[in-house]
Amino acid sequence: METVKQIEKEEEFERYKVAKVQFEESWYLDAINQKMMKQVISIMLAYEIYDAEGNVKGYKPVFKVYFND
Fold first, then answer.
1. Which of 57, 46, 44, 42 is closest to 14 using CA atoms?
2. What secondary structure letter does DSSP report for 5?
3. Mean pLDDT, the chain, whole residue set
């Protein structure tokens, strides 16, 4: 979390520009108990990237936070 706090303090970081949140997950099926479970591995925040006409052409990652077991 200290790394995220440092990124937020940088001049070029602007929280309002974050346009995408992407999760990396693992999903598990417990067939015996008929339950689905998921584990969040990481979360990535990204800015929108625009083309010359002002259309969104993709996303630029700002940072990625990894979670431990």
1. 46
2. H
3. 88
Q: What angle do CA 66, 26, 24 make, to 5 degrees?
A: 45
pLDDT higher than threshold 70 for residue 69: no
E strand or H helix at 6: helix 2-9
Q: What local confidence, expressed as pLDDT, does residue 1 receive? A: 64
Return d(Cα 1, Cα 15) in angstroms, integer. 16
Cα distance between residue 25 and residue 18, in whole Å? 20
Exposure b/e, 24-49, CB count within 10 A at least 16 = b: eeeeeeeeeeeeeeeeeeeebbbbee
Give the pLDDT of residue 41: 95
